[in-house]
Every structure is written in structure tokens, then in C-alpha cells.
Amino acid sequence: MDKNKRSGASALTNKPAGAEVVAKKRFDPPPLWALILVLVSLAACKPVFETDRDVQARQALFDLMEIQESFRGENQRYARNLVEIGKYNLKYHTGIVYMEIEKASKDGYRAISLPAESTTARVFSYDSDKGGFYEMGDDEISNYVLGSLNHIRKINTNLKVIDFLSSALAVFLLGLGVATVIRHKGKGRAVLLPYFLCLIPLFWAMMTQNHMNDEIVVPPHLLGVWYGSFALAVICIAWNLAILGKTLDPKNPPIFLNLLICTLLISFCSGLLLLNTYIKYGL
Questions:
Q1: Is CATH 1.20.1440 the classification given to domain 149-280?
Q2: For residues 58, 60, 61 and 67, what is the CA-based torsion angle, rounded to 10 degrees?
């Protein structure tokens, strides 16, 4: 009898084969590597923040590349200079862009394009022997950008240092949030989610402050990032104000209140910086 009771109790307590335990859903903050990837991607500011002169120089070279193919189709060779392609009406501002076809044959050509008064030391080139279009590195730039090169390099070095410090701050704040997640095992998700989200407008605000000036071109996708970042900052502020009362509960660990206050400060400062950029440069 006792044996049967133990057998019945065992049948009630043991899980049947193949049964799955459905875990309670909980908030998992974005993994560390994913957020670092986002911040590193945003840090690639050289191709994102471009001056109008650089954009015009690159576009002029793209137009020349198309014309060269048309010229070759008619003459079985590439044009040796800009005069030969005069009938194709290549349009670019000669006072802003300097362009030259350095060499050409029936099989290929080399052409360069750069701002006439470069402030960024960017030089664009098409070279058939090197695979086509590319942007020159430091080893070639010195042959085309002369007097102001050292000054431009000094400015670029300073910008890299500022970008590094900005990235270090963002990664430190990111690490603080991840450490909180690990220590409290995913609790406080209502505070942690806006904290992680507010790092995006913070980073973008710092980048715009570092790189924006009157010569920077603001294409639609760049403006879209600005609007998205500003919206995130506003959402984080509203979210944290909505949960402020619950967070003040003495039962909650003090770290969650600290993170909430930190999120409010970051979001508010980021929003102000982004708004200042919008007004100052007429975005």
C-alpha cells in the first residue's frame, strides 16, 4: 500500500517526458556587443558629416566617369583631357572643384577631383589600374593638398581625440547599465530600458556638436537620424516622469532611482544640444 502511495506521489511530482517548462517572460536589455556596435557605427563620422565642397568634388568625378564610358563607346579610347569631352557638358563649379584627367589610353584612365580650397584634405580619384573609384589615403593626399595639409591634419587629430573621449563616455555609461542588469538579474526593466535608449541621442548629440559646421551638408537620412534621436530623448523624459512615483518606493533598490535621475539628465541635455544644433544650422 505504502509502495503504491509513493508511486502515486512520484507520478504527481515527476514531469512527463518531453514536457517543457515555460519560463516567465522578462525584459532582457540589449546585449553589450549590440549597443557597442551601434555606438561604433555612429562614431564613423567621416563619411557621415561631409562638407558641401567634398560632396561636389565626388559628384563631379562620378559624372566624369559616366562621360568617359560614353566617350570610349564612340572613340574606342578614353578622353585624355577635359577639353575632349566638352560636348558632353560636364557641369561642376570650377571655382569650388578642381578636376583633372592625369592620364588616359584605350584601356583605362586616371582622374582626380578635390575641392579647390580643401578644408578636409579629402581627394577622390578614379584609376583603372587600382580597380576604379577610391578616396586617397595619406600617402597620396600630400601630392595634391599642399600648404594647409599640416593644419588640416592637426584639426582632424583633435577631432579624433574628442570623438574618442565621447565614445569612452558613452561606453562607460553603457557599462554602468549592464553592470546593474547583472547585479539585479534583470529587475527594474521599466528604468533600464529608457536608460539604454537615452544613450543613442546622447551619442548623436555629442557627434553633431563635434562635427557640425556651416559647410556640412545635411541629407535627408542625416536629418532623419536627428529627428529620431530627438524623439528618443523626449520619449525617455516622458517615460521616466511617468514612472517616477513607483521608483520612489523605498522597497526599490536606490540604484534604480539613481539611474532614473541619470536618464532624465542625459535625455534633457541631449535634447537641448540637438535643438541647439537644429536652430543654429537651420536644419
A1: yes
A2: 150
